[in-house]
Amino acid sequence: MTGVEENTVEGFEIFTYGDAVADVFDGTGWAGDPGDTEETIEWLAENSGGGPVLELGVGTGRVAVPLARRGIEVHGIDASEGMLAQLRDKPGGELVHVHVQDFTDFTLPYKFSLAYAVFDTLPFITDQEEQIRCFQKVADVLEPGGRFVIQTSIPDPARYDRNQRTQTVRVEKDHVVMTFTRRERISQCSSIQFAVLRPDGIRFFPMRIRTVMPSEMDLMARLGGLTMESRWGHWDGRPLRDSDERHITVYRK
User: Fold this and answer.
1) Burial annotation 147-158 (CB, 10 A radius, 16+ → b, else e)
2) What is the value of pTM for the model shown?
3) Above 90 in pLDDT, residue 57?
4) Rounded to whole angstroms, what are the CA distances from 163 to 123, 180, 208, 244?
C-alpha cells in the first residue's frame, strides 16, 4: 500500500471509455483530437519505412484505415471491442490487421519499421510501471533502427482550480460537449467525465488518464530501450515552444 488516497473512477478499465463512446466517437468533437488528422496521416505515410507499421490504440481506425488504403501494411492494437466494431464497418477497415490486446502488455509475432500512438493515447495507461512496460513492448517488436512516434498533451497544472476543471469543448446547434475533470497531483492521474448534452438527453463517457512531462517520458523510453531522436510542436517539424499544448516525439530503437 502506498498510503496515498486516490480519487479513482470505480470499475474503470482501459477499454471502458472506448466501449462507451464508440458509436459517436467519429462524429463528435473530442478534446483529445487536435484537429490535424490529415497531417498525422501524411507524416506517418511518408515515414512508414516501407512498413509494416503498428498503431497503439487503433480505435475506430481514423488513422489506420487511410494508411492501409495507401497500400501500407497496418496492424492495430486495441482492447475496446466497441471501437474495433466501428473500424471493421468502415470501407477499407478489412485492410487493417486488428489485434484485441491491451497495449500495456501485448505480444505480436511481427517486426515493425514504425509504431505510433497519437491523439493522447499514451495517457490512457494510468500506472507508471505499465507505461514503462509499454515502451519495452514496443521496443521488442521494432526492427533495429525502427521508430516509435508519440503525440500527446503537455501537462499544465495552471489549468486547474483546486485540482478541478470544467470545460466547454464544443457548442453546436444540436449538442454541447463538456468535460469535468478532477486531477490528482501525486499520481498525476485525472478522472474525467465527458458529457454530451442533446435535446433528447445527456450521455456520460468516463475516462481516466495519467499525463507525464516530456522529460519523464524520455526516461521511460530509455528504460524501455529507446532513444529520443526528435521532438516538435507540429507535424511540419516546427520547434516545440513553451506555449504549445502538445508535443510530437520520435524515439528510435
Assistant:
1) bbbbbbbbbeee
2) 0.90
3) yes
4) 18, 11, 15, 21
